[in-house]
Amino acid sequence: MNILLLGSGGREHAMAWKIAQSKQCDQLFIAPGNPGTASCGKNIAVKATDFPALATVCLENKIDMVVVGPEDPLVAGVVDYFASNPAIAHIPVIGPNKQAAQLEGSKAFAKAFMIRNKVQTPAYKTFTASDSAAAHEYLKGHPMPVVLKADGLAAGKGVVICQTAEEAIVEFDQMVSGKFGVAGNTVVVEQFLTGIELTVIILTDGKTYTILPPSKDYKRVGDGDTGLNTGGMGAVSPPPFATEAFLDKVKEKIIDPTMMGLKNEGIHYTGFLYFGLFNSNGEPYVIEFNCRMGDPETQVIMPRIANDIIDLYKAVAQGTLASQPLITDPRPCTTVILASHGYPGVFEKGYAITGIENTEQCMVFQAGTALNNNGELVTAGGRVMAVSAYGDDIASALRTSYINAGRIYYESRYFRRDIGWDM
Ligand code: GLY
Q1: 290 Cβ closer than 6 Å to some ligand 1 atom
Q2: Does residue 207 sit in the same domain as residue 294?
Q3: 104 CB less than 6 Å from ligand 1?
Q4: How many Å apart are CA 305 and CA 327, to the nearest integer?
Q5: Domain match, 142 and 228 both
Q6: CATH code, domain carrying 65
Q7: Whole domain around residue 20: which residue ranges?
Q8: Contact at 8 Å (CB) between 275 and 199?
Q9: Which among 162, 191, 220 is the end of a domain?
Q10: Ligand 1 mean position to 274 CA, how many Å?
Q11: How many domains does the chain have?
């Protein structure tokens, strides 16, 4: 099979690494990819949201399947585009359609869906610029801290935890005034929960689902979970507190009502569905849905899937997932993100990266990297790469991730020193 993978981050490098291991994969193309994905297949300089150009790539390269990494093409309707274009309608696209991707594309839609379908989630209210006075009053009476979320896609930056009503009012006004563009036209004001976060991702063919290995990512930039929220600075799988009993609750109180709600509302959801959860006093609550795999969760989940991943993708496309049980690699896996100093704020790019060749017994998944005019690997993003490793337990996996993280060098290198600290 010829496969086209969309995206260019560390998640996509891990997805490409896994697809390239399949004996069923003849040629893998990645649009647009990064220097890391070029070691798994052929990068094609086409944006993941340029649908007409993707159609041409598919026809020219006899593509048999498209796998989607990031949310943008899904929310913009890549699945619907392929299905409605007769020349490419025969090519399965692994991911949800535009309507289903609203679970990530609109936080207000997702919250209303959860309340309608009794999926456990923190209490919330939505406001727009035209309700500013009501929003201010509401925030003044709300227990602190409080969570403000821009409704639309904001590249992982649209969630802000405010400690005081004054701070929340300023943040609300900035969001509805365009701080996150149109994504902030509607703001979700959500109850703040205490507890511990984890990620549970399922793969579904629209009829049944498979729960992928659970994981936990570390979103704050600083050690001890301090500082600004990021896309994620590291991850572990499995988090020890994701016990069988807790995962049974996740199934009963979160996943099953979600799947039933999708069915009852006539939403045909296929592909990955990401449940960003909070374990609050042993009870799971949904903090967010995403319509794709997580980043950096993928960098610890893909290594723990022992199936030929193409078997799973084919089963999603054909509606036969029930006959493809997941085979899990029992070894825990961890990842540490090497970032650029200053991320998630302002940071410099273009620093030469050395030492990847000295790493051992680990997987280095590239994200914000590029080749300069001399063909040297340089930094090109906030999250530069992920260093993933297996271990007999979480602690030994982390040791291997950290030993190898230390072998890679570039000016402005920054990484958290405490991934897995709470495990
Ligand atoms: N790591 C969080 C996310 O992928 O949304």
Answers
A1: yes
A2: yes
A3: no
A4: 6
A5: no
A6: 3.40.50.20
A7: 2-95
A8: yes
A9: 191
A10: 9
A11: 4
Q: pLDDT per position in the chain (423 positions), as tens?
A: 999 999 999 999 999 999 999 999 999 999 999 999 999 999 999 999 999 999 999 999 999 999 999 999 999 999 999 999 999 999 999 999 999 999 999 999 999 999 999 999 999 999 999 999 999 999 999 999 999 999 998 887 788 999 999 999 999 999 999 999 999 999 999 999 989 999 999 999 999 999 999 999 999 999 999 998 899 999 999 999 999 999 999 999 999 999 999 999 999 999 999 999 999 999 999 999 999 999 999 999 999 999 999 999 999 999 999 999 999 999 999 999 999 999 999 999 999 999 999 999 999 999 999 999 999 999 999 999 999 999 999 999 999 999 999 999 999 999 999 999 888
214 falls within a domain: yes
Assign 20 to helix, strand or coil. helix
Distances (CA, A) of 159 to 47, 166, 341, 375, 380: 26, 17, 21, 38, 24
Instruction: Answer yes or no: do 15 and 84 share one domain.
Output: yes
CATH number at residue 396: 3.90.600.10
Instruction: Give the residue, by CA position, lying nearest to ligand 1 atom 5.
Output: 294
- In this structure, the answer to whether residues 208 and 165 fall within a common structural domain is no
Q: Which atom of ligand 1 is nearest to the CA of 232?
A: 1
Distance 266 CA to ligand 1 centre (A): 27
Type of residue numbered 216: K
Query: How far apart are the CA of 232 and the centre of ligand 1, in A?
Result: 6
Query: The domain that contains 208 carries what CATH number?
Result: 3.30.470.20
Atom of ligand 1 nearest to the CA of 294: 4
CA of 206 to the centre of ligand 1 (A): 23
Do 174 and 234 lie in one domain? The reply is no
Name which residue sits closest to atom 3 of ligand 1, judged by CA: 294
Same domain, 59 and 144: no
Ligand 1 atom 4 nearest Cα: 294
Phi-psi region of 412 (alpha: psi -120 to 50; beta: other; left: phi over 0): left
Does ligand 1 lie within 6 Å of residue 70's CB atom? no
Atom of ligand 1 nearest to the CA of 296: 1
- DSSP per residue over 45-86, as a string? ---TT-HHHHHHHHHHTT--EEEE-SHHHHHTTHHHHHHT-T
**C-alpha triplet 33, 36, 42: angle, nearest 5°:** 50
